[in-house]
Design brief:
Elements lengths: L7 E4 L5 H12 L3 E6 L2 H10 L5 E5 L5 H15 L4 E4 L14 H28 L3 E8 L10 H21 L4 E8 L5 H9 L6 H6 L10 H12 L10 E4 L11
Parallel strand pairs: 1-2, 1-4, 2-3, 4-5, 5-6, 6-7
Helix pairs in contact: 1-8, 3-4, 4-5
């Protein structure tokens, strides 16, 4: 089994959903965890759910550049360094390329692309002194070709793939690996809220499952297990990789 013993992991956007699933799984593998959420109350509540884990809490809005830098500095100061950075926090707001306002576009890019870049910059300072590290960016299968209502979101995740590959090349000599998980439709609290906000009733889950090859949506634990591979020494020679976590090849939608 993969081990993350003696590793320090910062997971942005880990007060719920995929981020919390990653934090929970990494804690079970022995990692110290730095939980980050938008608000203090929800971040501390998430930490309380990690019973018995070595965990500290930070919080703040990643649209603010200084917050991005500060949460990594906090992790380094409180835990002595960072070995694994998981850039998970994301803005999944709906918006088309035709109608998106400049403010909408800027907020999307700030959270989904600029924040991972700034967190990476800060984390690398610690990783270089610790003999290496692993940076895992959480992307989306929409990075390739997104739905019309997800235009700006898709662009941000495509940009994240380019960041991943460029950073992997630049940081390889320092034994810092950078990889990305492009995630398909995942059942989380946030996804349920999004679906209800766009007018889908409580039955949307059953309707979604009916379109999935293996009879269920992805769950945070599925993403967490893949992230653990990139975080641990099992993948010590793997960098610049993008792993699509979906139930069918991208572009090959199932015939229902």
């Amino acid at each position: 089994m993969s081990s993350l013993k003696n590793k320090v992991t910062l997971v942005t956007g880990s007060s719920s959903g995929i981020g919390f699933g990653i934090a929970e799984h990494f804690a079970s593998l022995g990692s110290s965890i730095v939980i980050h959420g938008l608000r203090e109350e929800e971040s501390r509540a998430a930490a309380d759910r990690l019973h018995g884990a070595d965990v500290v809490v930070t919080f703040g809005d990643l649209r603010d550049p200084e917050t991005c830098r500060q949460i990594v500095r906090f992790a380094i100061q409180s835990k002595g360094g960072v070995d694994v950075l998981v850039n998970n926090a994301g803005d999944t707001s709906r918006g088309s390329l035709e109608s998106a306002s400049l403010e909408f576009w800027d907020n999307m890019m700030a959270v989904n692309l600029r924040a991972p870049f700034l967190c990476l910059q800060e984390a690398v300072k610690s990783m270089k002194g610790r003999g290496g590290g692993s940076i895992i960016n959480i992307g989306s299968i929409n990075a390739y070709v997104g739905a019309p209502k997800l235009g700006p979101y898709s662009v941000s995740k495509g940009g994240l793939m380019t960041l991943t590959k460029n950073a992997a090349l630049a940081l390889g000599p320092h034994k810092i690996r950078v990889n990305q998980l492009n995630v398909g439709w995942t059942l989380t609290e946030g996804e349920d809220a999004v679906q209800r906000n766009v007018g889908h009733a409580g039955g949307w889950v059953d309707e979604a499952i009916a379109t999935r090859t293996f009879g269920r949506l992805l769950l945070p634990r599925d993403i967490a297990k893949a992230a653990a591979y990139f975080a641990c020494d099992d993948s010590e020679l793997v960098t610049g990789s993008v792993l699509d976590i979906e139930q069918f090849p991208i572009g090959g939608f199932p015939d229902f």
